[in-house]
Design brief:
elongated; 5 strands; five-stranded mixed β-sheet; alpha/beta; 45% helix
Length: 336
Amino acid sequence: MESSREGPREFSGVQEYIERTVTGYSDPYFKKHFRMSRQSFEHLAHMMAIYLNSNDSGVPVQTKLLLTLWTLANVESFRGIGDRFGMYMGNVHYIFLCTTRAFRLNSIKFIKWPTRAEYRSITLQFSFPYAIGSVDSTFIRIRQPLKQCNVYTNRKKFCAVTLQAVSKPNLEFIDVSTGYPSSMHDASVFAHSQLGRNLSILLEGTPFVLLGDSAYGLTTTLMKPYPDNGRLDETEKNFNRVLSQNRSAVERSFSLLKNKWRRLRYLDMLLLNRIPDVILTACCLHNYIIQRGDVQPEDQYREDDEENDEEEEERDNDNSTTAGKQKRNRIKYLLM
């Protein structure tokens, strides 16, 4: 009796998508699809060529990058992406993971803490004295893990990992740290991050500070608002107002990040250890398109960004040092 089971079939996806379709895109259409200009893309391919040629997939560097950019910029399934790029789903997944790992290992090329000589020029971009960056965290939704689900479930009752970042006023990240279970308080994430452990050393002997919200502890290197107990004087209210205006840069950075690289709105991944690779790659590309001038003013903030309202304000952290309080009191008079 003959079996009715079909044997292996020829791949039936789009053939020569890059050669026939992408090459025919106008420059604005290319940028709309891949989030950067053709010139920026070619520059990026040249930057990453040596790191993306190390695996044996036999796929050109440009194809790997286009596939990765498309995957991050959209929420299309890997099967759909495979059809688009003329590959099997497993090959698409493999190339995406290899490419994001390469970006993570070379993230220092895109995300750099400023040198001490640069602190002065950065603080001139703020209207808050001595500020060189604003720090905050955001949730990146993930698929429910097979293990430790409660650890990754946050106060909003969904599973996520936390991304902590420090942003300049132009929305560029100068430090990022991610992979933390979203049940962790922002202050705990900061304390466990490399930045939290090293900030006092990085800013030692300088007056410069980061700006944070009430979730963080007050120190000589991190300013936070005065607790609003209903008895704030005008200098304290003004301090809180100016700090809030300047700290909003990091919130707008997160909004831009998730609007450009939409896969970060929900990462349907079982490999928890590869999630930081994907998030950091998006952060690298976020900085890259800002540095290359590929972000337009209308891209920078959108009121309808549903993810932007996801994080409610953390409870006030009363872990404040005496020296931090004294410095905050000095700064409030500089703002008058």
